[in-house]
Write a sequence for this structure.
């Protein structure tokens, strides 16, 4: 296992996955906060009643930002800025691009096949890529969080502390688990598809278009049961907002998604003809 991990580490550190992913996290953190600031700046220039169509379930939904009152836009807290950075699915987009580049690229380059020929079991190979993907994920996540805190402090001209810090840490903890589940989806998709472009396109669709389709279906059918609550990308957005709604249900859905993703990756890889 150690040899496989060292080999994986060398390739993602010297390839196009690790450092570009970290840089993308920093740039995306700045971009998400800037978008939020622009939304608040121009929204406050418009009459309050013009935002009534955006009001649903006790919040005004501005896409990457949810507030209970339009006036709240004038004085956003650091916690609200942190929440807005997760609602847009920016971090999920980074995972959807760079995890398949790493795993599918290993298939294309023959590294996985060579590891199997050298006598490593399929389970050991799979575990090595799960661990390596986790290394990339945690580094990117920390870079994203630190960048958000630094940029938000600069933009607001204040430091975070006390209750607000605890609330932010709670958001970070929930989002860590939610993105970990989406990481499992990315890993499973990579081992199922094995082709970088097809896998990236599918995952980007799942981040950008699929949540919107489920939300549209909810609006059409007007049912108490929300289809949008069944997809992990939507859950990422739900968990970023305080107070939480239907947390128990979404947590169970996240756990089921996690186990299905792990099981699918394991079955597809173990029963595949890895020599081809």
């Amino acid at each position: 296992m150690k040899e496989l991990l060292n080999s994986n580490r060398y390739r993602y550190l010297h390839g196009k996955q690790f450092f570009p992913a970290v840089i993308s996290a920093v740039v995306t953190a700045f971009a998400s906060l800037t978008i939020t600031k622009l939304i608040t700046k121009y929204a406050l220039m418009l009459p309050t009643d013009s935002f009534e169509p955006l009001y649903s379930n006790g919040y005004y939904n501005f896409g990457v930002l949810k507030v209970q009152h339009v006036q709240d836009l004038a004085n956003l807290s650091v916690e609200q800025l942190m929440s807005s950075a997760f609602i847009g699915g920016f971090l999920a987009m980074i995972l959807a691009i760079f995890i398949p580049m790493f795993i599918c690229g290993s298939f294309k380059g023959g590294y996985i096949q060579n590891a199997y020929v050298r006598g490593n079991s399929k389970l050991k190979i799979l575990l090595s890529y799960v661990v390596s993907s986790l290394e990339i994920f945690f580094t990117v996540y920390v870079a994203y969080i630190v960048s958000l805190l630094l940029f938000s402090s600069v933009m607001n001209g204040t430091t975070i502390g006390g209750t607000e810090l605890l609330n932010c840490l709670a958001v970070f903890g929930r989002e860590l688990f939610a993105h970990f589940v989406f990481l499992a989806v990315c890993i499973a998709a990579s081992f199922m598809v094995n082709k970088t472009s097809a896998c990236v396109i599918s995952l980007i669709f799942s981040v950008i278009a699929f949540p919107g389709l489920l939300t549209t279906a909810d609006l059409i059918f007007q049912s108490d049961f929300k289809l949008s609550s069944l997809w992990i990308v939507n859950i990422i957005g739900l968990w970023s907002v305080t107070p939480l709604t239907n947390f128990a249900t979404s947590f169970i859905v996240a756990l089921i998604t996690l186990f299905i993703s792990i099981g699918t990756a394991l079955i597809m890889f173990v029963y595949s003809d890895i020599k081809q």
Observations:
- The first strand starts at residue 55 and ends at 56.
- The beta strands are 55-56, 59-61, 66-67.
